[in-house]
Structures are given as C-alpha cells and as structure tokens.
C-alpha cells in the first residue's frame, strides 16, 4: 500500500514539473516576441564618388552587423539613412528623415556646415574623417571627432624634418579651411624644431592643369626642395602627376604626404608616388583587424566590381577602421538611452527636419552617452575626451616604393622619432639623403653691408677690391673667409652680394640693418649689448678684448724686487705652505710616542714642527725618523717637494734671464689720471667705452692704421693706444720691438655677424660657426691671414706676462701626498685606540669632553713615556 502511494506521488510530481517547464517556455517566447529592438535612425552623409566615401560605407555596414551579432539582446537597432553629399551637403543634411545622429560628412567644409545645423537641432554629428582643427567640439558642441586630430600628425612631420636636418619646408595645401588649419599647426610644430616655411602654396580643388603647372614651376625657382602636401586625393593625383612630368620627382626632391593622403595611397597612381614619404596613424595589428580586412575587401569589391582586387586586398585605409569604430560607438551609445521617440520634437512632423530646425529630444542624452563610451576598437582604445578621440597611438613613417608603403620608422608622443630609421629610397630612386635645398634658378639676393674703405694695415681682416670695368666687388680677408666657410655649412643656399658702405661708422651700419637698408653686416663687428638691441648677432667667430698698447720701457730693479715670488701663483704659494705645516704636524704626531727628538715643551714642539717642515725644502732635516708610517709619508712628501722646487727654479730662471721690459702704461686708471692723450681705432666702439670711463673727448685721438699707431706713440702724440686685442696683435706682428701690450682690461663679446631682428640666418650661421671652430678649418683660416701667433709680442721679453705656475698644475701630486699622509695618520690613531681601548672608554664615559681631551692627551703622553722606559731597559 505504501509503495503504491509513493509511485503515484512521484508521477504527480513529474506532471507538475512538466507543466511549470512548459509555462516558463511559453512566457519566455512571448517576452521575446514583445521585445523587438526599437529602430534607431542614423543619418549617413557621404560622397561615394570619392575615396573616403567608398572606403567608409563597407565599414559601417560591417560594424552594424558585427555589433548586433555580438549583442543579440540589444534594445535598439541602427537604421542607416544614407544621403549623397556630392551635389550639396546642406541639401543632403536637410532632405532626410528624422534621425537621432549623423555619421559623416567626409570633408572639413562639409562638416562645418552640417555641424552648425546639428548644433541648432541638438543632433550629434559623428565624423570619422575630419581631422582639421577648423571643425572642433569647442566651436560646435554637438560635433564629435572619432579620428585623431591634425595636431598629432604635424608633430610627427616636424620630427621627420628635424631628423634629416632640413631647415626649410614648403607646404602645398588645398585652398580650404582644412588646408589653412593644418598650415597653422605645421608652422608652430616646425618652429619647435627650428625649421621655417619660406613660402606656402595654396591650390584650389578646381585648379586647371595650367594653373597647377604654373605654381609648380614657381616652386622650382625656390631653393627649398622639401614639400609637404595636404590636399584631397583627386587634387594630389593631379599635382604629383604634373610634378613628375616636369622633373620635380627626381633626385634631390622630398615629398611628404599628410594623413589624408597616406591613408588612401591605393587611390594615387604608382608612377607619381615613387620615393615619397608619408605620415599616418599606426593601427595596432590583431587577429580581429585581419578578419575585418578580409570581410571589408569582399564587401568593397561587391560594391565596386571594377576595383583592382590585389590593391584592395593589400591596402586597408585608416578611414575604414575609424568608420567602423565610430559606428560601433554610436550603436553602443544608443543602448544607453531609455525610450526613444519615433520622431523628433517638431510641430509639423515635417520630412525636412534640419531645414525646419526641429530640436531632437534624444540629442543631448545621446551626446552624453557617446562621451562616456570606452571600449577596445579596431584602432585601439576608443575614448572621447572633450568631444575628440583620445589618440595616444604612434604615427608610422612610410616610404612608397614600387607602389607599396614600406614602414621606415615610428613616432610616439612621449619618445619622439624612434631610431634608427630604415634606409629610404628617395625620389629618383636615390639612396642619398637629399640636402633639402638646391641652387634656385631665380630668387632674391641678400645684400650684406661691408665697411669701406678698409683701414690700411688691417686688410688681413677685411679687404675690398672693385673691378672698375665690371663694377663687381670682390671681398677677401679673414672675416670674409670665415663668413663664407660658415655659409657653406648651411643646409640651404644663400644668394648674396657684398655692398660696400663708404665712410660709415660701425654703429651707423647697425642702424642701416635695423631700418632694413641691408640684410646683414659682414665685418669685424664687435658684439655689444647696445648693438644687440637693434640687430641679432651670431655667436662670435673671433674672441676679443680691450688692452693698452704703449712704448716698452725697461723694468726698474726697485719695481722688480719681489720677482722671486712671481713664478708661483698665490693659490699655489698658500696651498704649498699649508701642506708643509700639515705634513710636519702629522709626522710629529706619529713620531711623538716613540721618538724623543719630537717631544718636549710646547715651544720646543712648535719649533720642531716648523723646522722639520720647511727644512725638507732643501732636504736638511736632522730629526731621526723611527716609525714606518712616518717614513712612508716623508718619502712621498719629499718627492712632491722635489717637483715643486724644480719647477719653481726653472720658472724663476726664465724670468731673470729674459730682457725685462714692460709697457710704460698698463693701468687704465693711471692713464686716465695722467691727462695724456689716448689713441683709438677710428669707427671703433672703443671711443664710447673711453668716454663712459670718464675720458674727455678732447684727449681722444682717432687713428686708422698700424703706421699711425707707431708714429703717434713714438712722437708722443699719445701716451697709449686703447684698442681691441685682435688689432693690437696685428700691429705687434709688424712692430714687435719697442712696444708692449698690457693684459686685457676688459672682455668684449668678440666679433660676430649681424642680421635683422628675427632673421633665420642668425641661428643657422651660429651653428655653422660652432662647426668650423670645432674643426681645424677655423685655425687654418686664421693662420692664413695672420703672420704669427698674435700673443707672441705681448709675452716676449715680459716677465709680467710669463705664465705662472698654479695649483691646477700640481693638483694630482697634492692629492697623492695628502692621501698618503692622512692614511698613515689614521692607521696610527687606530693602533693607539686598539692598545688603549678600555682606558679610552672609561675616560669618555666618566668625564665631560674638555676633561676627556685632557686625559686622552695624558694617556698619549704616558704611552710615550712607557715607550722610553722600555727602550732604556732594553739598552741596559
């Protein structure tokens, strides 16, 4: 009976379970039927006659299919309403159904128009192809840029320019808002790498072949051979084709393509692309990207059956990737919205939505959802910051060879251009890196002022010769050769002429440059603070200072009494004395415990230290050394003393044996107080310098040649001549006997070349001067134009200008002896501490520091007494 009941009970339970299961299935099925995704209409404005539209359309279709395959439970479904913008983008935007957002359009001018209407209607405009800063979320709040900004690629282009040392770049851009916007960014980026844009070429999309040819021929007349081209594909094809025909794709030319061309290389003819460089955003490789590329190629060939399958399969445009990610982001943002009305908020429910300026109910919510979206897309992490794609991915640098883009390098925002770059095949199939410039067939010639006439006797600095037949000016001399050597180092050609300026002071020449009469000054022009307010100076190509030239007089004995201290500089005297005393103290300390000769009263100990120290100068120390540590220290010290005394003796002998001459005037203050006349080189700034020092103008006598220098000094017309050291050096080259030059009394900025304020030549020539001064070229030029070492006469027969020995000459020796002596002392202290460790601990622990020091000394003295007793006992 019980078993039968149990079986009936089990059968009833099975029936109920079956009923509940069927009920659940029916409920789930009915729910599925009632949760049909809400259509979410999205406008798509593209011109499918042009590459961006053809590339983007398959990507958008694939993105929608992929999204709803990955999200089968979506509550909304994107319905794309496509409009063609080929005729009029405004009509395309307005002649459509009620949409919640718009994808596209493809170009910056179209995007500006549509974004303006989108702002008025609160409809988000999501662009995957407009990278121009002329259309930005700051100007159009409902504009969303789902592609990297131009601000990134221009920095990569500037880094590429800097890498190859090109200093001048000519942009060729389409005459529209995008072209002008990128030009502004490029100017700033190039300025950061110290490159400039001497000329920019804007070409309209509608330009004829003749107009493009005329503009390219004009570019050929310039010296710059580096071009950055930023146009749409159709215009770029026409420009590059004509450039190839007229020889501008040959060796020596450099063509760099921006993102909008590099990402669409498949649409540009191969013949006109050989050797060009391109910059584009690097899309990270992945299996997902490879799968998308295969499906995109199939879809593209279905919609464009005439396309080349091989080219389509090999080249995936970045625009295809960005269109895919933008569509995915829009679908994802739609899922975050609540209930969506089937139409926009409009009074007449018109078909022409934008033209009636109806305001979207979902626009603000959709925009906010878009700005919060973050996911891993085909192009990497997708995240919008301030309405723009946050793009931290690197840029790739490609070289087009045989119709294929070959990556040669990578640029990142943090690291810059990653080195080394792969070899480049340049235009004309050349492997030689172009200089970036060439001698132009025509162009402006710069006019450089040269002072004339040249002061006689100083033609080694500068000399002008005018051919009376041709009226051509030939310039030569040290200054001109240095200038032309620097010009040869420039990464571009400079066309210039030397223009003699008659009877003008150097300050007047500076004023001529400041007011634009000339482009620069090529002369022995001294760099001063006052002049630098009006012109820009290069780095000095010749160092200079101001000194006094006077008659040489024999040095009186009373004035030369202390000549024996002159071989060494004060620093060496002081340090040597300190080491003598320090060495004596340490030897006394180490010998005190074991040597009676080093003990006694304080006065006796002091005398022992001083006597022992300085007697080592002549090796006459009589004290016996007993400890090994003292012997080591004294041996090293005696070696140092030997070197010092030998060097001192040699230098003193040189001073005492030469003819003792000195300038009759060597101090500018003495010269000022004397009331005597002073000479200076005419047209020099030295006159202003003397006036500032308080000299009366009536005492200043202008001179113009070395012969006048000699005559004025010999006849007594002037007591001295104050001039710059390069000129005085030239004078002493030919008038060595009877004249002496003092040491520099004032340091000047040196000789430099001057140019108008803001001239790019200033920085470029400064670098060039550094290059030639770091090589032997500068020395060779100087030796060519000056007969001998200009310092020869200023140092010959003059003990006051003889080189004194300083501490730097013996620094290593002092380190050796100091280290050895110090180490020996430390070891002696350690030995004393080990022998008296317990007693020292008691003294330090039980007494204040003054008492401790006294008792430690008593312990030290006691140890010395014990040593004496031990030695006496052993002798007994």
From TrEMBL:
Transmembrane segments: 572-590, 602-620, 632-652, 813-834
Pfam families: ANF_receptor, Lig_chan, Lig_chan-Glu_bd
Keyword Glycoprotein: yes
Domain of life, per lineage: Eukaryota
Membrane topology term: Multi-pass membrane protein
Listed GO CC annotations: membrane
Residue span, Ionotropic glutamate receptor C-terminal domain: 447-788
UniProt KW keywords: Disulfide bond, Glycoprotein, Ion channel, Ion transport, Ligand-gated ion channel, Membrane, Receptor, Signal, Transmembrane, Transmembrane helix, Transport
Disulfide bonds: 736-793
Gene Ontology terms, MF aspect: ligand-gated monoatomic ion channel activity
Domain named Solute-binding protein family 3/N-terminal: residues: 465-789
Signal peptide range: 1-29
Subcellular location: Membrane
Role description: Glutamate-gated receptor that probably acts as non-selective cation channel.
Family: Belongs to the glutamate-gated ion channel (TC 1.A.10.1) family.
Cross-referenced PANTHER family: IONOTROPIC GLUTAMATE RECEPTOR
Protein name: Glutamate receptor
Species per Swiss-Prot/TrEMBL record: Rhynchospora pubera
